[in-house]
Amino acid sequence: MSCPSAITDVLSGRIQWCVVHGDSAQVLTALPRRSVDHVLCDPPFSPNVHLLQRRMLRGNSKRAGHEQVGFAPLGFEALTPELRRLCGMHFARVARRWVLVKCDAEGQQAWQAELERAGGRHVRVGIWHKLSAQPQLSGDRPAVAHEAFEIAHVRGERLRWHGGGLHAFWAHAIATDRNGTNSRIHTTQTPVALWLDLVSQFTDPGELVLDPFAGSGSLGVACLRLGRRYLGVERQAHYAESAHEWLAAENRGSTLAAARAGQLGLFSGGAR
User: What is the domain range of residue 116?
Assistant: First the structure.
């Protein structure tokens, strides 16, 4: 597979960002060595954890005066060992500096192993404390309070970040749409606030961030706000379209909700 023209334009610096609808494995295979500055991503959960994850649906029925809670599938497939190995191999090949992979806590060691197998350097395990996360509805065990980050780096390059002596710990509320702004468009959307912390601490202005599992595009939004370039790949067409719509609105100085309502952004008068 050759790279689509939009990807080539981002790699060359002709455009600042793109979201392409495609298979991440095929795109990764086609990318040249050391062609992006960083890889930051949120791939699917590992199979054993994925099976336990469901979207909570409220208000679908009521019984005995109590609101019933239903569940629906996440809407995408679990991560396979084969895809994780391929990603580990190519993440270590295409990145110039940092590789950050958000994952379930149970899957962190597998990601570390694949990145080290590919020649990457394991640096740290990061923690996202998920404020306002879903409680354990069964009440028979503790609820999941966090997700992990496998934080790795390309070997042979000096480690450098903007966090000083801070811990690899970030506390942010989960992404919701409780205020009705249509700000949550993916079932497992990572909050923009978390990505803003990571992008500002691990990358420099003008650098290119590769996101092979773009989902909602929330990482891309953080990149645009902080003056980074962004290359997103999303397998599901409807998510790729929504992510592109969100980034286009952000690029115009608007929001996704305002763009969908037909409102003009602050920068609508010209290219940005």
Answer: 5-39+78-252
Cα–Cα distances (Å) from 56 to 5, 164, 176, in that order, read 39, 38, 12
Residue 69 lies in a domain: no
pLDDT tens, N- to C-terminus, the chain (272 residues): 567 799 999 999 999 999 999 999 999 999 999 999 999 999 999 776 645 555 554 444 444 444 444 444 555 478 999 999 999 999 999 999 999 999 999 999 999 999 999 999 999 999 999 998 989 988 999 999 999 999 999 999 999 999 999 999 999 999 876 555 556 676 888 999 999 999 999 999 999 999 999 999 999 999 999 999 999 999 999 999 999 999 999 999 998 888 888 776 555 543 33
Domain count for the chain: 1
Q: Is residue 141 part of a domain?
A: yes
Single pTM value for the model: 0.86
Establish if 15 belongs to a structural domain: yes
Range 54-86 burial, b when 16+ CB lie within 10 A, else e: eeeeeeeeeeeeeeeeeeeebebebbeeebbeb
